[in-house]
Amino acid sequence: MFEAVEGLLLEHRALEQRLAEPETHADARIAKRLNQRYAELSAVVGAWAEHQGVTEDLAAARELAAEDPAFGDEADALAARLPVLEERLRHLLVPRDPADGKDAILEVKSGEGGEESALFAGDLLRMYTRYAEQRGWATETLDATSSDLGGFKSVTVAVKARGSVEPAAAPYASLKFEGGVHRVQRVPVTESQGRIHTSAAGVLVVPEAEPVEVSIDDQDLRVDVFRSSGPGGQSVNTTDSAVRITHLPTGLVVSCQNEKSQLQNKEQALRILRSRLLAAAQEEADAAAGEVRRGQVRTVDRSERIRTYNFPENRISDHRTGYKSYDLDRVLDGDLGPVVDSCVRSDLEARLAALEE
Q1: Which of 54, 207, 240, 273 gets the most CB atoms within 10 Å of its CB?
Q2: Predicted model pTM
C-alpha cells in the first residue's frame, strides 16, 4: 500500500505551487477544492515523514546497539512505535468517498407515530443543529413543514463548513452515516395512561452540489406553484409562493415553501434537487458510495431502523455498529460525536478489509 505515497507526495508539491499562484484564488470554488485536497495530502505527508524519521532512527539505534548495549532500549522503543505509525498511514491511504469533503443537505421526515413522530423529528433536528454548532458548522433551513404540536412533518437543512477543511472534518463525511430510520421509545405527550410508544422518523443525507457540478435543463422540469401552509406571516395561504419542482427524467420531486417569495422557494428547491441528482449520479458511478446510499432507507418503516432512542432507559443504540450508551439526554443535546465516531471506525475497517481481500 505504501507504494502509493510517492505519487501523493508529488501531488502535494504540485498543489503547494498552484495554491501559491494568485490566479488560483480568482475562483473561490476551485480554491476551496484545492485547499481541501491539500489539507488531506498534508496529513499523509506528515505521517510519512514521521514514519521515515522513525525508520531511520531505528536503523541507527540498532547499529549503535551492536557496539554499545545502552542503545538497545532506544531501539526497542522505536521498534514499538513503528507499527502504530504504519497503521496510521494505512488509514490515511484508504481511498475516501469522493463526496466526503462536501457540505451536506439533511432532511428529517416524520413517519409512523403521528404527532409523536413529528415531535421526535424536531428533537432530531435540534440534535443535528447543536452538533453542527459544536463542530463549527453553519446551518440554514431550506424548507420546513411543522406539525400542530410544534414538531416537524418534514424539515430540510443545509450544513456548511466555515472555510476550507480537510475531507474528514467536512459535514458530509460525518453526517452521511445519519441516513436511515431512527426509532424512538418513550411516553408521548399525547398519552394519558403513561404507556411507552414506539415511533420513527426518517433521515436522508446527500452531499450539497455546486451549480457547476450538475446541469439541469429547464425543459426537464415541471414547476408547480401553490399556497404555503403553516407559520410564515401574511403571505401564508394568501399568495402562491410555494414551489414544487418535478425532474421529469428521474421523477424526483422537491417542494419548498419556507421563503415568502416564489423565486426564493424555487432557488431553494433547485438547490436540493441538484444535490439529490449528484447523489444519484455518484451512486451509479461508485459502488462503494452506492453501498452507503443504499443504507439510507427511503421509507420510514420501524422495521428498517439504524438507531433506537430509548427514553425510559436514557439509552441510545446504533444497530449497525453495536454502539450503545446510557447518555441519551447528552446525545440529543448535540453530543453526537461518539456515535458518529463508531460509524466512521466501522466504515474504515470495512474499507481496509476490502483492500486486503
Answers
A1: 207
A2: 0.73
Give 3-state DSSP helix, strand, coil % of the chain, rounded to 5.
50, 20, 30
Could you give the residue range(s) of every CATH 3.30.70.1660 domain in the chain?
Answer: 104-352
Q: Where are the alpha helices (DSSP H) in the chain?
A: 5-19, 28-65, 72-93, 115-135, 171-175, 262-285, 287-294, 328-332, 337-356
Helix (H, G, I), strand (E, B) or coil at 315: strand
The three three-digit cell numbers of residue 314, written as one number = 436514557
| CATH T-level assignment (fold) for domain 104-352 | Alpha-Beta Plaits (3.30.70)
- The H-or-E segment that residue 225 falls in is strand 221-226
Q: Band of the pLDDT at 282, cuts 50, 70, 90?
A: confident
State yes or no: pLDDT of 212 exceeds 70. no
- Chain position carrying cell 481496509: 352
Q: In angstroms, what CA-CA distances link 33 with 38, 40, 84?
A: 9, 11, 30
- Grid cell 424512538 — which residue? 184
- What is the tens place of the pLDDT at every residue in 299-348? 444 446 899 999 999 999 999 999 999 999 999 999 999 999 999 999 88
- At the second CATH level, the architecture of 2-93 is Up-down Bundle (1.20)
* Of 200, 210, 225, the residue nearest 306 (C-alpha): 200
- The distance in angstroms from the start CA to the end CA of the chain is 13
Number of Cβ atoms within 10 Å of the Cβ of 101: 26
> Residues of CATH 1.20.58 domain(s) within the chain?
2-93
Angle between helices 72-93 and 5-19 (to 10 degrees): 70
Contact 113, 199 (CB under 8 A): yes
* Residues facing 287 on adjacent strands: none
Of 202, 189, 215, 221, the C-alpha closest to 295 is 202
